[in-house]
Write a structure and sequence with these properties.
With 221 residues, the protein is α+β, with helices and mostly antiparallel strands. Helices cover 38% and strands 27% of the residues. The chain contains 8 helices and 9 strands.
Length: 221
Amino acid sequence: MLAKNPPLLGSELFAGLDEATAGRLIATAQFRSFAPDERIITEGQPASFVYCVVSGFVRLSKSESAGREADICVCEPGDTFGEYLLSGGAAYAYSAWSADGAEVVLFELSALRALADRHPVMHRNVMRIMARHLLGAMDCIAGDRLHTAAQRVANYLVSRCPASASQVTFRLPYRKRILAGKLGLAPEALSRAFAALAPAGVEVKGKVVLVDSVDLLRKAC
């Protein structure tokens, strides 16, 4: 199952590995399924694994001393989390939850570190993953400071529209609460943003989004 899993083998963690090394990496892996909203790891918990999402979605979150929690990322198939631990660290820096149900591969951390030390290309891969996560965090900060909630939602919806389309209908890939966390919004703020985009031709029915005019939506970004 693991050796023939396209999202796993397409992960950046495997980039540039020869077949033998990829096989040794897969040999360290465990496959687990998580129910919707099931906790996968806890912030501050001693770290034992690095993870790769093979189906479904995983949301990462940070909490503060009063117990409030905010989503910081939504991981999709092929994405890894916990990869920064290969360069050091003994505890998870965030919590991870299955969003609407997820299948995840777990790589035992000590075995992964030993394998990476023998094959430096893996350290390069981890650096690339970490760099992508850093740039994503910077984009998120910029979006928070430069865009209103409606603009953030409009940008996300435009990203789901084919470039040549004038009208489009599509389903959101996850629940609105998960989308709100991905965009750095409270659920009620997401609802208000959808309402604010109605003059731009956006209609939302459950998880189905109807965009009457992609050009009008682009102008709302």
